[in-house]
Amino acid sequence: MGQAAALSKRELTLDGLHCANCAMKIENGVGKLKGVSSCSVNFVNKTLTLEAEAAQAEQIAGEALRTVNRIEPHIRVRIKPLPTAGAALDTATWTASDQAGTGQNAISAAAASASSSHSVNGSVSTTPANFTHSGHTGESHSGHTHTGADQQHNTEHNEHEHAGHTHHHDGGHQRKLLFRLLSGGLLMAAGLLLPMPPVLELSVFLLAYVIAGGDIVWQALRNIARGQVFDEYFLMSVATIGAFAIGQYPEGVAVMLFYQLGEMFQGAAVERSRRSIAELMNIRPDYANVQTAAGIRQVSPEQIRIGDRIVIRPGEKVPLDGIVVEGSSMLDTSALTGESVPREAKEGSEVLAGFVNKNGVLTLEVERIFSESSVSKILELVQNASSKKAQTEKFITRFARYYTPAVVMIAALLAVVPPLLLNGATFSDWIYRALVFLVISCPCALVVSIPLGFFGGIGAASKNGILIKGSNYLEALNHVKYVVFDKTGTLTKGTFAVTAIRPAAGYTEEQLLDIAAHTELHSSHPIAESIRNAYHGKWNEARISEYSEAAGYGIEASLDGQCVLAGNYRLLQRERIEAEPDLSGGTVVYVAVDGQFAGTIVISDEVKHDAAAAIRQLKQKGIRRVMMLTGDTRQTGEQVGTQLGVDEVHAELLPQDKVMQLERLDALRARGEKIIFVGDGINDTPVLARADIGVAMGGLGSDAAIEAADVVIMNDEPSRLPVAIEIARRTRRIVWQNIMFALGIKAVFLLLGAFGIATMWEAVFSDVGVTLLAVLNAMRVLRFDGSHMSKTMHMSPSDQKTSTI
């Protein structure tokens, strides 16, 4: 029963999806299928993602495939298989002609008619059901055979290529369309310029019309037959056929020509945007050089196991997460973290998949398999981000659903009512106005540019080292008024170090550190390790004898024949040694020699270099209150809060106490205001999940962060949070620019068309031209670079000194 209730995700690749309105219809159609809990079409990546109960996933996936082919028969649907250990992966392709009754029958039919050597592993089944299929027409891997691991690598590489690049058959389609437009244009020019009898003139314009827009009319008829009346094909067909009916032959042809030309340019602009996004995501490694007994062998990253050793040569991408066991080099980490400065890697350094090796040769011991690697998580997060839509996107989808039927009804009334009510009004004049009205009303500009804008914002954030898990979170960042930070590992580095040495009279700093370091030589406590790391003198274990640790107090040892104590203030009180308590903050180690106070050593967690500047930037952006929650002592927490400019500090908290503080803040905020919690993603999972927007700092290595957080900052810098908010605001500005621009232009031209001022020529501009301009405007968000913001966040020279708690 529990297994039947579990949800299973399926992805379908929609080759040939170039129309955002088509994407909306597919999403609505598949979303209404019984058993589908959620459905989203990513127009940019040409993918459909649906969730359904695992027990019904096979049946529903087949039904979804059949539904897509019913709604848009020209789209080639490829169901992505679920990866199965030890099995080769491939995809199956069906079109409308492959369907046999139901989706389940289609799968069976594909299995029965298979003839190629490609092995398919249960494309839509929760249990492996191996079958074969014939080569794909126009696909880059058609006709090739692969076996075993080599097949898996090639197939998955092809899958990646399909996600964001134009297919060969798409390029052929564009060339054919261009040829048709040129032919139709020449025929229209002949009809306009050459004298000819009326019948011949009509024939020439009809031929030009069929060449230029016959496919649009045919698609409209097919959609009407399937009960889908109100779409852009219907609008263009009615408008242009109506123009012929009232004798406006040139304008009927011209509208179809310019509509098709605009669609071609619009498709090119969208494809350019797709390529830009694909290039941002082009961090997937193609191969790994694995060390074997027979030497180095090049294999697919998916074949590598934990513990294997791989070699990364200069210029190659790091294929999997691992630890450097040999060699040193500089790494370009910009694809993952957004950092422009190369990072040094040497023995013992952790290296993430997606980094690019700059110069030396590195040998890594693999720590995670490819599916769990950093690069795999990033690709999955960014590619699936559009499944969580912003409210603006949802509004536009609903708006377009009711808008098109409404304008068709208005156009019908515009064609019929005025001639009946107004003296001197003719049907031909008002029908023409109604046709112009229909051309202008096409909602393509909104339906295309809005999702493109949000996806571009997510891509820009990724380029700047910020993973946003959905456009809903990107939009929510615009409404943040409260930011709550965890302390350790978020605003501080989370690593302890000696930050102050305060010797008593008669001792120097060097002497006090020498005494403390040798006294702590055999202790495994993190504080002892910090003191040993700060000591750079020569070690001499023979100096130490009679070593003992007292739990909760510290260490007692004989050093050079003297009795040395190193511990907390309670240790000195127990031994009745007089000393003033050190209240400067941090963890204080008190040292005494032969019953006399020798000084203190302060151990602190260092504040991140950009933490104070990040908080200043947040306040400049209108954040009402910045709060810090910590499990550390009140004294330490308040010191850090004062140093960084935090408005409110709550210390000595357990994880459940942090949730309570967040709920207290939630009760105080106004409606519509959002709360961000920023944590390290390890012990802050409950409060990350409770916040409106959970942000994980440096969470790539933490599965808990990926699962609980809505935003992941990959380079561990608090200064990326203001960058994320700026990207969100820039995205919102561009999206609303497009909404206001498109609606404004259309409103003006609709009025002009209704009053007979605008002609078909202006109507074409108001549709195609506005769409193209909106798409180009949406692409601007991709060019956002947050590096200039990071530069302004660097501290002044006086603040560049090491800041500590």
UniProtKB/TrEMBL annotation:
Pfam families, alphabetized: E1-E2_ATPase, HMA, Hydrolase
Membrane topology: Multi-pass membrane protein
Enzyme Commission number(s) from the entry: 7.2.2.21
Primary localization: membrane
Protein name: Cd(2+)-exporting ATPase
Region (Disordered): 117-171
Residue ranges with Polar residues bias: 120-131
Organism: Paenibacillus wenxiniae
Keyword Translocase on entry: yes
PANTHER family referenced in this protein's UniProt entry, alphabetically: CADMIUM/ZINC-TRANSPORTING ATPASE HMA2-RELATED (PTHR48085), CADMIUM_ZINC-TRANSPORTING ATPASE HMA4-RELATED (PTHR48085:SF5)
Transmembrane segments: 177-196, 202-221, 402-422, 434-461, 739-758, 764-782
NCBIfam families: ATPase-IB2_Cd, ATPase-IB_hvy, ATPase_P-type
Top EC category: translocase
Location of this chain's protein in the cell: Cell membrane
Source organism superkingdom: Bacteria
Domain HMA positions: 8-76
Keywords for the protein's UniProt record, in alphabetical order: ATP-binding, Cadmium, Cell membrane, Ion transport, Membrane, Metal-binding, Nucleotide-binding, Phosphoprotein, Translocase, Transmembrane, Transmembrane helix, Transport
Catalyzed chemical reaction(s): Cd(2+)(in) + ATP + H2O = Cd(2+)(out) + ADP + phosphate + H(+)
Family: Belongs to the cation transport ATPase (P-type) (TC 3.A.3) family. Type IB subfamily.
Stretches with biased composition (Basic and acidic residues): 153-171
